[in-house]
Design brief:
The chain is α/β, with parallel strands linked by helices. It has 12 helices and 16 strands. It is 37% helix and 17% strand.
């Protein structure tokens, strides 16, 4: 059927001055006008700016050095947890500063809980429903306290023994966060050479996909001379989008803002991209500086396009390692992302979620924890009683 046509001004006049129109005619005009608005409202709700999600390592930079306007989300890293479900303390002044600056730029902020080596901290807590409920309540209260927009869980990684409790935790946490219009993101990977059960992706069960809003795919730290080649990004996206059939809008491709060097003794020291770029102005044009391999501007661009074609966004570990001049990788991503199509929100019905513009073998390897962020300081705790 053809749609009725009515001018907005005529409708407003009808509302303000219903006479001499009949009540029936006035009601019909209201319905016709609202019917015309529905497609526009649906488009507004169903679309979102292309997500560019950056982790910020609290020990590795200053709040005023972040390019907030080039990010849609920031995950402040890390807070710890334990068997009691408490959320570890953070630098409160720094976190509040990040939240204030981010919100002024229209950028959402989440708290990343866990990190490399923190998997055991989740195990006892997630084993029971009481523990999961307590953790979810604590995480929600932490968000309330710091005006946060979401929670990111870095449980690296669930195992065969903990896959069920991992799924149950995400369902419990996601349900509580979504009631308040907050997002839940998870750091995931299909395969990791540094853990006993190296095929870690299949431990993330299908039920997790419905509970989470973003799966931040860590397509880096793959070992070998080049720890994050383009082919690894393709493999990861194929796994999560095609093999696992996770909704593509939820699959966020992760890229590194650091390089690594494989030493003859098996160690893998890491160097921030900015340190490489400031030492050698040709660094952005390549993917290696001597024996140190990283992602230059061209490779980052290819990965950003892959993220747009196959997934729902791009993720960065981590933003403090970027340069702040024409060599910036984040600037290159932002330029490309501005031209990418908007991403359909799978969470369209939830309030507040529209994106506003603006255990390794000992002795075999080594990581620079300051650069890669895989550390968990011993901190105090915030509890909900």
């Amino acid at each position: 059927m053809p749609r009725a046509h009515i001018a907005p001004r005529a409708y407003l006049a009808d509302v303000k001055n219903p006479l001499p129109h009949s009540p029936r005619a006035s009601a019909n005009r209201r319905r016709a006008f609202l019917f015309l608005l529905l497609p526009l409202l649906a488009f507004t709700i169903a679309q979102a700016r292309f997500p560019v999600i950056g982790y910020f390592a609290s020990w590795n930079g200053a709040a005023d050095a972040i390019a907030y306007g080039k990010l849609t989300h920031i995950n402040y890293s890390f807070a710890g947890t334990g068997g009691d479900g408490a959320i570890g303390s953070v630098d409160e002044g720094q976190l509040r500063d990040v939240v204030s600056r981010a919100h002024q730029a229209g950028t959402k902020v989440g708290i990343a809980i866990g990190g490399w080596g923190a998997d055991q901290a989740f195990v006892a807590m997630a084993a029971t429903q009481a523990g999961r409920d307590r953790f979810a309540a604590n995480a929600s209260a932490f968000c309330d306290k710091f005006s946060l927009d979401g929670v990111d869980i870095d449980w690296e990684f669930p195992t065969t023994a903990t896959a069920d409790s991992y799924e149950a935790l995400m369902k419990t946490l996601g349900a509580l966060l979504h009631k308040k219009g907050r997002y839940l993101s998870l750091a995931v990977k299909s395969h990791d050479i540094y853990v006993k059960e190296q095929d870690v992706g299949d431990k993330v069960k299908d039920g997790v996909f419905a509970a989470a809003d973003f799966l931040n795919v860590m397509a880096y730290d793959g070992g070998g001379p080049n720890h994050s080649p383009y082919e690894m990004a393709v493999t990861e996206m194929n796994y999560w989008v095609k093999t696992r059939a996770c909704p593509r809008a939820k699959v966020i491709l992760g890229v590194p803002f650091y390089g690594k060097e494989l030493k003859p003794d098996g160690k893998e020291p890491a160097t921030a991209y900015k340190d490489l770029a400031y030492q050698d102005r040709l660094v952005p044009l390549r993917d290696n500086s001597g024996a140190i391999f990283y992602n230059g501007v061209a490779t980052i661009g290819k990965k950003a396009k892959l993220a747009a074609e196959m997934g729902g966004g791009i993720m960065i570990w981590e933003v403090a390692q970027d340069s702040h001049d024409e060599t910036s990788l984040l600037s290159a991503i932002g330029t490309l992302a501005a031209g990418f199509p908007d991403v359909p929100l799978t969470i369209a019905g939830r309030p507040g979620l529209a994106i506003t513009p603006a255990a390794p073998a000992s002795g075999l390897w080594f990581r620079n924890f300051t650069v890669t962020g895989r550390s968990l300081p011993d901190r105090g705790a915030l509890r909900v009683r």
